[in-house]
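Changelog note: in this version the structure field was regenerated for every chain. One regenerated record is shown below for reference.
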Amino acid sequence: MSLSSFSAPRHRLQEMLKAVTETERVACERDLYGQTEVVEETLEFQQDVLERVEEELFKIREEREAFELAQLHCPEYVNGNDFRLMFLRSTHFDVPKAAAKIIYYWSRKVDLFGLDRAFRKLSLQDLEEEDQIGLLNGGIRALPERDEAGRGLLFSYRTLWDNRGGTSHKSMSRVLWYMCHALVEDVEVQRHGIILLAVNLMDSATTQDAKLNRICWRDAQHALPVLLQGSHQLVHNQVMSRLLETTLYAAGSRIQNRFILHKVKCLEMAGELEEYGISATDVPPELGGTLDFDYASWVEERRRIELNDDE
C-alpha cells in the first residue's frame, strides 16, 4: 500500500482533530491521564437510566431482528440490569447511544458467532479452532491488573496477529470480543474504562491490515460494552503511523481524540506510559514493564472456570 493512498482520509482526520473544543480537549486529557470522575450510581439513578434505555430500545425499529431473537432465547440475560448497565457505562450514560449499541451488539454478535452461539454469555467454548490459535498466540490480551486509576488494560501485539497464515477478520474480531468481555466482567473497569496498549512493528501495510483495523475500531465504538479511555500505539515507521492515523478516521471522534502515537523503542514504552498514570508494574515486559503474568495459565484457568459454570 502506498503512502499516497492514505492521504485523503488522513487530511480529513487532521481537520477533525483541529476542530476539538477546549471543553473536549480537557475531557480527553482527563481520560488519558486517569483523572476522570466516574458517575455516582445511586439505586435511584440506575433505575432511572434503565427505564429510559428500555424506552429507547422500544423506539428503535430498524435492524432489531437479532435483538428480538436474543429476547426470545436469553431474556434474563439481554433484559438484565447488569447487561444493560455495561452499555450505559460504556457511553457515559448517554441513553440513546447505549440503546443503539445494544441493538448493534446483537446483530454483530450473530454475524461473528452464528445463531447457535450468539445467545449466551461469551466463553472460550464459543471460539473456533482458528480463534483458539490466535488466542494462545497472545496477539490480543486482557491484562490482569487495573492501572492506578482503575482502568482495565488491553494489550495488542500486532505482529502476532499476522503470523498465522490466512487468519480471517472474523477470527481476530472474535478474539477481541472475548478479551473485551473478560475485562468488563470487572464492574470497576466498566466504570473507569479501558486503555489500549498496542505494538505495531510491521514493516509494511496492506489493504487487509487497514480493513481489519477499521473493523476493530468500529466494534469498539458501536458494538462492544467498553469505554475506551485512551489508546497508546507504538510504531517504528511512517507506513504504520499513516495506516493507524487513516483507519482511525473510521473510529469516531471519541477514540480519535484519545489516540497517542509513541515513536520509541519497545523497552522505552513503559517509561512513557508512566506519564499517563500507568505503572510499569502493570505493563508487560514486551513494553519494558515488569508485569508478572503467565498468560497461558490465565487462559487455562478461565477455561476451567467457564466449564464448571456450565455444569
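Spot check on this record: The chain has a mean pLDDT of 86. Residues 18 and 193 are 25 Å apart (CA to CA).
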